Structures are given as structure tokens and as C-alpha cells.
């Protein structure tokens, strides 16, 4: 079999949608699985269904280590083409959609192809910059110099790129960029803009350039939501045989996807997501949607998985087929989390329904122990706001959320500390709790506490929660009772009583 390319597809008689030639209007910092299964999928769909007619230049923001898999080279060898499978449940039906993505023109490396990357700034057709350089990517690094080729940090690279654009088109209106930041940090677009402005000041660049950056460029904060499972290693040979071509950058993800872009109303005309019937929302405030995702999707994970693991389950999908565990999760979502949120109830209910379908995905073996990583910080960020919101609204404690805190303590009640983590037991079998070292050492030091002593120590640790949780009326007593019940009768029985 031949490698995937336009020529190979022609030889195979492929008659699906392809866009072989179009102007490069998007520059994308990030060539990995996520952006290719999310942003590039949406662009490809807009090309087909809304006449967007745009190619994407991918930029690998870090150097390729010697001897490592050279993703950029493979992308170019395949003419930018790759096969994407979106799989899961949708409206109660099993879905396995295949699409050849043809919106990518080429891939450059910001180190070995520095001059070629910078030359893209002089392309008058270029309008959009997309980035996903991980949570650690949007940082101001004062060690970066204007003369570096390239500088180490992404914001410094972007500042150089914007300056090259300004020097070419600075006096021409409408030549700035729409920057769509996809990193998983709060206010990602605004934080990126702050870093750029700091580099402009640090490098003593012209005031006119700074004014141009602020006036002609739109830095959009966005919320991204899709689980991307990447290269299907165990299935790749079978898939390639069925397709009659070799695709070395196959990509897979869940069928669910949702992108919220915070930006001006004018973007709706520029980016015709609605004409392509895509789940992308352009709004003046992305925060309520982020809160919805964090509280419902992530909060459901964090409040359910530790108890579910103690109850004997190992994979999220299996939990959804257990009436007690699924019932506990649904009661938490519908009775205790949704009432604390501000979006219209029908939108919240629809999203909650999609969460259950996503958790049932037959193509993803989502291990509970993987989700349990760093549960202390996760519980604070994802579940505690619902606890406080419920109390503020109702004046009472939310039983399932309170029980989930007891499950958290029981899960972390390990007896042996190793380099790998804190070793605890479930039904006589060991498992490893993984969290920040200070968290693991805390629980190890309290391993011999009574239940009440342990609960009190955890709740009064303000380093964990940012406050003393014993100040919440009735919370300590209720958690002690649930912890005692969990250790005596098991998490499953506690869940059963609650539903």
C-alpha cells in the first residue's frame, strides 16, 4: 500500500471531499492530535459546507529531538492529509465517523524552519492564528530576546511574528490577526496578549507597534471541549488495510465537540461555523460555558470516580452501566450541581445528558485511576464551588457532594509512601494514589488517625482548600458519618442509600 497523498487518493478512486488548493489563511502553533481533531476538523467542515476556502499552516513550536518521530516531516510527506475518526454515542446511537482532513497545507518547525515561519507574516491572506502550546505555553519569559531565532517561549515567538507583520503592513488597516488561544488556562487569550505586551515593553519596540497590536488584533479567549484519543496504535494496521493506504498520522477522538470563542459579533460573519452547522459558539463572555463544563463534566468525574473505584469499578464506561453508580452521578449533577449554575436550565440539561453519553463511549477505556490524579486540586476547583453554591442557595448540605468528599478522604487513606506515590488498598489489592508530594506526605503522616481526626486534619488544611472547611456548618460531622459508613459498609452501599 502507498502512503496517503492526493495522488494515492486519485489512484484509489476516492470521491469524497478534498480541498487541494486554497490560500493559507490560518497559522496554527501546534501540530498535535488535539488541534488536528478539533480546530482543523472544524475548518475542514467550514471549507466544505460554508465556502471558507482556507488552508492551515501548522507550526511545530518545539524542536524535534534527534532520532524522534518527526511529525512535521510525515505531515508534509502526506501533503497535509490525514484520516480522522470521531467515535462514540450520539443521541443514543453508536457513531464511528471517518473523514479525510484536507485543510492543512504544510507543517513547519519553528526552529529548523524559522525563516519560513516568519515569512508567513508577510502573506496578505493570513488572518487567523490558532494555538495550543499546553498550559505551560502561555508564560512570560524575560530571558527571551528579540534577536533570538527563535526565542524559547511561544508568546515571544508570537511577538516577533506580529512585529514582522507590522513592518510589512503596519499602515494598512485590517491586516491584524484574530488569535484563537486554546490552552487550558483561565482567560487564555487575554493572558497571551498580556505576555506579548510585556515583550514589547521589554524589547523597547515602537509605541506605534504596541498600539497596532492592541487596535488591529483580537485576542480571543476560548473554551475547548473534546476528548482526543490520538493515534489508534492497536487498530492502525487494520484501519490502513481497510482504507487501502498507509496513514502514519491517523487521529481519533470522541464525536462530541464544543468550542466557545469570546470575541466581537463581527467574528460570526468572518468565521461561518453556523453555516456549516458546527458546535461552535461566538459570544461576548465564555465564562458561563467554562463554568458549566468544569462543574458538570469535570465535577461529575471528580465527585464520582474515587467512590466508584472504591466500589470495585475501574473504567468510566462500566460505571455508566451500573445503576447505583450512574444514579449517584446523575443525582449529583441534576440535583446538586445544575441548580447552582446561571445558564438557562434547558442548556444545562442538554449538556448533562451529553456528559452521560460521553462517559458511555465504547471506544474509550477511561481508567478511574488516571482520572484520580491530583484529585485534591481537582476537588477544590471542580466540586467545591458547587458545594458552596448549593449551601448559599438552599441553606443545607448537598448530600452526594458531601459523600464525595468522604470518598476522597477514604481513597487517599494510604499506609505506605513510595517514590511512585501513596500506596493504599482496595479489597486487599494495592493501588497508587498520585498527587503533589506535599499532599501525599500529609495523608501519610495522618495514616493512623481516627476517622474524626483525619477528617478534621484534612478540612483544616488551608493549603489544600484556601479556607478552613470546618467553618461550613455541619460539613465536618456529615463527612465523618459518610467516611465511617464507607469504611464499614463500602462506598457502593453509601451511594445506594443516597439514591
Structural summary, described in words:
The protein has helices at 6-11, 33-37, 39-50, 71-77, 114-119, 154-169, 188-202, 207-216, 236-243, 267-270, 287-310, 316-320, 323-337, 345-359, 368-371, 375-394, 399-411, 437-445, 451-459, 462-465, 475-489, 491-498, and strands spanning 24-29, 55-60, 82-90, 93-101, 104-109, 128-131, 178-181, 218-225, 251-254, 258-262, 280-283, 416-417, 422-426, 429-433. By secondary structure, it is α/β, with parallel strands linked by helices. It has two domains: 6-285, NAD(P)-binding Rossmann-like Domain (Rossmann fold), CATH 3.40.50; 304-498, N-(1-d-carboxylethyl)-l-norvaline Dehydrogenase, domain 2 (Orthogonal Bundle). The strands form three sheets. It has an eight-stranded mixed beta sheet. The protein has a three-stranded mixed beta sheet with strand order 4-3-9. Strand 10, helix 10 and strand 11 form a beta-alpha-beta unit. Helix 11 packs across helix 14, helix 16 (375-394) runs antiparallel to helix 17 and helix 17 (399-411) crosses helix 21. The longest helix has 24 residues, at 287-310.
Write out key terms for the chains shown.
499 residues, alpha/beta, Rossmann fold, N-(1-d-carboxylethyl)-l-norvaline Dehydrogenase, domain 2, three-stranded mixed sheet, 22 helices
